[in-house]
Amino acid sequence: MTTGKNYIGDLLSAKGKTTFKTINPELNSENETVFYEASEDEICQAAVLAEEAFKTYSTIADTKKAEFLEAIADEIEALGDVLLTTYIQESGLPAGRANGERARTTGQLRAFATMLKEGSWVEAIINKTEGKPDIRRIQIPIGPVVVFGASNFPLAFSTAGGDTASALAAGCPVIVKSHPLHAGTGELVASAIIKAVQKTGMPNGVFSNLNSSGIEVGKALAEHPSVKAVGFTGSIKGGTALCKIAANRPVPIPVYAEMGSINPVLILPSALKSEGEKWAVNYAASITAGTGQFCTNPGLILGIKSKELDDFITILALETDKLDPTCMLHPNIKSQYESLKSEVLEQEGYTKKTIAEKETKPNYALQSIITVDGTTFLKNRTFHKEVFGPFSVVVKCDDIQQLNEIILDLEGQLTGTVLNSDIKEYEDFKEVIENLKNKVGRLIFNNVPTGVEVCSGMTHGGPFPASSDSKFTSVGLTAVKRWVRPVTYQDWPDQLLPKALQDKNPLSINRIVNDIVTQNPI
Questions:
Q1: N or C: which end of the chain has fewer CB within 10 A?
Q2: Whole-number pLDDT of residue 159
Q3: Peptide bond into 465 cis (omega under 30)
Q4: How far is CA 416 from CA 148, 329, 393, in A?
């Protein structure tokens, strides 16, 4: 039997006494590898190493950090089929998803490398006016970051995912608290990162990977004084607990948590009249994509009562029923899905529209569509809950006023979508859409919310509880802003300034000089 260990810097360690195994949800059986939960000594060792590594890593040139990130991407690809096989065995997700997520992970790393090579991300600002102080500002890394792996993305939001890539790009060492559902996948990716550390000469401790089946390791990491920030993707319960821990430290630290969202969709009358069937088909696929385990799953659809809305609901339910159930990530996640779904279905005032009651394999989830009227939805907040899985609520509103009231009553969301076939109709719903904008991080027009493009303009966050800080996103190049802070140099000799702030602009980056964006030297 093989054993899975913790990476403490570039060393493999297994000092913990508690062990656990991952589950193959497709087979509903344990995988072979035994993993060791990190001990207190290992937690402290990783944190202290990260603090020491920060002294060097924070000063390394962006071009060298770019080489490091590119090397990580190369080493992940070099893992080949063993990574994909392990991913599938631990997640129950199909090979196509595994391949796509690996490409997304390596693509993120290379995108941050490109950003570092260009260099303007440091946001250099210079105010140099005769007779006034010489003021120059730049962004600098904040220190070691703890990243919590996500259950639903074993690669793209986990060991070498967006949080890790952006933190390393910023100049911050990273300690990953690997997710117990895919610890084997995490260990393979960690081994690739360590190879990249060694090949590019990065300092020992710039990366560590710690295993844990419970909450204690994560809690200890968030409390450790060497840790300066936390990145988290997961439940509202887990994210808010980390926020409280971080706020109650002697020196509080930021927690950037992406947590819960039901991603409301407004289907306007014009869309129902002209394209209702198309949207019903598209949304049946979106609701069930990845067994409904995307954080952008459309869990709430809002429309105004009409024959066209009824027709849309009928087709949506029929199309959803046509789709075969698929496997969830873990028996516990399947159990949570059934529990949350049952809690909603125990309420009064809804109509179940899907009829499928198929026999399914263990850990496979039956999809479900229900409808409620607007008054019931407003009175009973149980219908507002996120049901993590292939489940969606369609709300039949009396009129625009009630639709607006529902939007105002919603919590913060990752996404909000508007479906419309007549641009003139916008004026009738302008207030509703403006209120939706104030509830979400990403406003979508005539599309589905599932799928999050990795690019500079993406926002993957939103008002609480969608995320703990809506000013920062976990996807795309601006994610780097979470791991930096500004520092201003006043009246410093030019040769002692960081290169990004020196008069000659030796890095040839875009800078704001006396309120004008320029690459010119001063």
A1: N
A2: 97
A3: yes
A4: 26, 26, 15
